[in-house]
Design a protein that fits this description.
Strand content: 5-15%
Helix content: 40-55%
Number of domains: 3
Structural class: alpha+beta
CATH topology of the largest domain: Butyryl-CoA Dehydrogenase, subunit A, domain 3
CATH architecture of the largest domain: Up-down Bundle
Low-confidence stretches: 30-35, 447-455
Shape: globular
Largest sheet: 5 strands, mixed
Radius of gyration: 26 Å
Number of strands: 7
CATH superfamily of the largest domain: Malonyl-CoA decarboxylase, oligemerization domain
Mean pLDDT: 89
Number of helices: 20
Strand order of the largest sheet: 1-2-3-4-5
Length: 455
Amino acid sequence: MNTSFFGELLQTISERGRALIERARERRGVDSTRSETLLELCEDLLSGRGEASGVALAREILTRYAELTTGPRIAFFEALSHRFGTDPDRLKAAIAAWQSDPCDETAAELHAASEPRRQELFRRLNLAPGGTKALVRMREQLTDALAHRDDGLRAVDADFVHLFSSWFNRGFLVLRHIDWSTPATVLEKIIRYEAVHEIRDWDELRRRTDGPDRRCYAFFHPALVDEPLIFVEVALTRDIPGAIAPILSPQRDAVEPDKMRTAAFYSISNCQRGLAGVSFGNFLIKQVVEEISRELPRLSTFVTLSPVPGFAAWLKRERAEPASPALSVSDRAALAALDEAGWWRDAEAAERVKDPLMRAAAWYFLNARTPRGTPVDAVARFHLGNGARLERINWLADTSDKAMAQAHGLMVNYLYDLDDIEKNHEAYAEQRIVVAANAVQRLVRAPVELVPAVR
């Protein structure tokens, strides 16, 4: 059964369910146009048992929700938080029952009672035609609301993440090769969703997807037919690339097939803001590696050329901290040149900055941690979690305005060694170990003259 057929089936069920609901309302003498509020419809959906009427109700709820403006939409999110949370009476009874008789049956009831009602509401809304896409959009709008207020909305967001983590795990994702024959609706979205290196026009898209030394792969979910979730752009090269400009240059010479030895993943973009923070599982890149290897068995090296979007902000904070363990007295003095506009265009200033900046970057990757003990760099978390090794830090690899502002021009190679991917992943997942090449580790092994702590 293909996705299109299933969608048409849900549409038919929804229309028949809609007729059942209308007849029931007529028998009660209720105006069927706008008789019930959105929240009342949600209560009806949760209390109903018939699947046909449930699909129709879910469709009506999502249709009405889509018509809401910002204020009423936030009020709806607040109602989801306060009105559709856990039933306290049921939870108290379940706790008491488990305490008096701790068995599988009472434990199951305790588990069910502790679940907020809105999770079941989301499951039932997902039955509507296009329900998954509508819920992803709903979560995107909730994320926007969270940027300005909380009011209990984080609990609603956590429920979305909990459900989406099940609905979008890697077992449901389908990998597709994207090329010039891919439907235009998908190609347009590749242009729109590119988040690392902007695709300016269709000619540039064609160079990235259709050249003999270029590949593009995207992951899709059966419920979002033409909506890529994440896509990967690949350059097939002879050696490990250390800069992005030669890869993106329109005047580049294509590498001959018999000289291709390296697959470089130079852009990885998440497409759905409503799925931010939802893990699609580990080893996504390994799946792409295996796909390329089947087509091009000559390839022996698989690396990324990755941005470092949080490095400049982190370094600015460390430079403002008098006793930062990441910076020596001499390095701190040399890095003052970073405050000069266009410092990288001045050969003398660039040479003065290079070594201390590279040492600071190595410290950033190997030692800087979030309160949860994970690397502060989000790109690093993704690749380390996928089993990569931090291979090389590249000096002035991207001198675009964006890269200079975010990373002082640095880019990083993560190496995917097929023999070590699982081992590296386990080291990171279990102990948060950053597996790094010796060249990176040596950058922070030199004696460091620390600034005395201020007392």
